[in-house]
């Protein structure tokens, strides 16, 4: 049995789909689970409840953690450390391996121009400090030989079904309404995005590769160094809509954040969109002979829906 904890999001759905290439015993767990594969076993659970988490993990060879708590720093501080402690304890109990899908918020901003698995951890954002804490909890358990685990890191997502990304919310939806796309950072800096289907393929592969455990892996991301503006232009070309790109200064984000809470929360990690941000996944790409989708093809697939 392999189990998806927090299934249903862009990453969780693709991982569930790809796991069917390795096993037909897949347990899909969330508050409102839905089948991705015909043979999926659905379990409705509140994973912040230790008893329900215990039942979700019980009998699992591997637990894939794709849970997404509400994007709010107060919620993150309250729930993430408790969840990780309960997860580790439960997986120790059942000898279940952990594959934790993580982000890059914990990295030192000085090194964003070429992030690798060895990039120093030195978060400046409040959300980054929470992510650093829970990643450290997991790797401490690994180093003490209490549990086998993988931390699979990814930059910002995009792709079919990924509706919470900036590319979707401030570019795709605007163009769909024949409006100008908006951006919260600089247009002329490099930024990486990872295609959701590449996440699914890579995480399923890692979870089913014995030698991949007890390490941090960067998930496969294009090595093309495109600027934010070039990503937006790719989407405009794919949708055949040429518009002037609007950028929002910090003061406007602060004002709008009063009415649109997500903008206020994004401001905490907004530094990532103001400097070169290149996610180096050469360890995975070389190790598994994997070629990530090109930005051009990925954007075309995204807007084809």
From TrEMBL:
Q: Which InterPro entries match?
A: Epimerase_deHydtase, Lipid_A_modif_metabolic_enz, NAD(P)-bd_dom_sf
For the NAD-dependent epimerase/dehydratase domain, which residue ranges apply?
4-211
Q: Which SUPFAM superfamilies match?
A: NAD(P)-binding Rossmann-fold domains
> Which Pfam families does the record associate with it?
Epimerase
Listed PANTHER family: BIFUNCTIONAL POLYMYXIN RESISTANCE PROTEIN ARNA, UDP-D-APIOSE_UDP-D-XYLOSE SYNTHASE 2
Name the UniProt record assigns to this protein = Nucleoside-diphosphate-sugar epimerase
